[in-house]
Amino acid sequence: MTVLASALDTGGPEHLAHRAAMLEKLGALDAEHAKALAGGGEKYTARHRARGKLLARERIELLVDPDSPFLELSPLAAWGSSYPVGASLVTGIGVVEGVECLITANDPTVRGGASNPWTLKKALRANEIAYANRLPVISLVESGGADLPSQKEIFIPGGALFRDLTRLSAAGIPTVAVVFGNSTAGGAYVPGMSDHTVMIEDRSKVFLGGPPLVKMATGEESDDESLGGAAMHARVSGLADHYAVDEADAIRQARRIVARLNHRKAHPDPDPVTVEPPKYDAEELLGIVPGDLKTPFDPREVIARLVDGSDFDEFKPLYGSSLATGWARLHGYPVGILANAQGVLFSAESQKAAQFIQLANQRDIPLLFLHNTTGYMVGREYEQGGIIKHGAMMINAVSNSKVPHLSVLMGASYGAGHYGMCGRAYDPRFLFAWPSAKSAVMGPQQLAGVLSIVARASAAAKGQPYDDEADAGLRAMVEAQIESESLPAFLSGLLYDDGVIDPRDTRTVLGLCLSAIHTAPVEGARGGFGVFRM
Ligand code: COA
């Protein structure tokens, strides 16, 4: 019997308390997501509408197939910065004429859709996803180009946007640009570098320099239309492949372009009829992670609510039991799962992980990492037992693994454990966090405690007295700072994940990601790992 049993007491006080804590966090998160949806706010939205234009998300909604899901990515980008939440760009994966595409749309209600440093990071992340998964890119363009006050942060690295578009094209990944309004200067290279372009009568303005700049540069008198209007580009310059009469017509034409791409997935979709849902209710995922992450929880309770039929063939269940590893299917796709069970990673867990990752590579099976780790074990016994070389083995395996990786931060994700479990720097194809997640170099209390010990020793070395009262104040301040910097909205704002998701949506989100991933061939590494220290 490989169907997971559940020991969850869903009516018990613990479950209800965990659920209440999670719902509170989800409520707070909704308020942050609402900021992204509000874009530039009422005034600019009303002005945009009065001009007869659709909002960024409305354009996307018309572009994707009716009733199909749109997996929005990085919605909290720029959270905690001086720029509006969402970074004036919407990105995500949607299905157009049956083809999964990476869609980006400037939000012209936010500072004219101009790109700030977070817009750039978000756009580059979207390109990365398109490239790794071979997803056609559709850019819905309407932007004032570089956010001029922050130009020094975006001008030089921003060149990568044009480079990415042509590299996607060179790799046979189609790129389509639909220009709804301004696409000036650097923005002009989005249609310029794309395989297919659509422009709209009296709306698209695509030029390297607008009339004022031309006047300054050469003294020439000109106007928007003759410099970069859709009619000019369709009839004269040839930059527009398709001439649309309005926004709806442009979207219709973009859908026809995608329908004719002949873009085929490397792997056929699993037959949905054969996909068995989990045996337990996803609603129960709200009550598994304790409010206090120091309390351990069994990740098999999570796995049982994510995978097909709650069916999980555990690998080495009796060995390295602080990490659960095993095989399952998720929406019909095979996955190997690594899930932290007791928080700490010891030598046995690290070796087990390294072996498991190699097996997944031999079998071409994508890996799912479910994080709840405080890191690798410290202490004399463990150092002498070789925890560094065993942790290095796991990090070697995850770094050189070639199968697609998915990471979900459920709880703690601290220290090098975050790396071994395929944290952001290890290029998981997608990484999502639950509202309960926390990630930092170590826990806030530990970090504040380490700082205090170091300060005390430093004072002693100088023969100075140590102020215990000031120490308590410093510890509390550092703890609060690290706590706030470890929270999911903060990390999502920095683009360290692809979004903070409701635990109940995890199976759906991972299913959409696995489907997108299988557009590209799934091929594991056969060898090619670094030297494993034994
Ligand atoms: N950088 C920083 N802020 C910008 C910006 C840019 N590139 N483009 C627009 N904004 C700001 C405006 O200052 C304005 O701010 P405010 O409302 O606080 O005064 C807000 O965004 C809206 O701009 P507005 O001009 O009122 O909107 P619009 O829809 O009528 O026109 C543009 C939008 C993009 C056509 C117009 O703003 C424009 O031409 N911008 C400059 C384009 C450019 O030359 N960019 C350089 C590219 S490298």
Automatic annotation (TrEMBL):
Ranges for domain CoA carboxyltransferase N-terminal: 22-273
Organism of derivation: Streptomyces hydrogenans
InterPro entries the record matches: AcCoA_carboxyl_beta, ClpP/crotonase-like_dom_sf, COA_CT_C, COA_CT_N, MCCB/AccD1-like
Domain CoA carboxyltransferase C-terminal: 277-534
Matches recorded under Gene3D superfamilies: 2-enoyl-CoA Hydratase, Chain A, domain 1
Protein name according to UniProt: Acetyl-CoA carboxylase carboxyltransferase subunit
SUPFAM superfamilies assigned to the protein according to its UniProt record, in alphabetical order: ClpP/crotonase (SSF52096)
Pfam families listed in its UniProt record: Carboxyl_trans
Organism superkingdom: Bacteria
Regions crossing the membrane: none
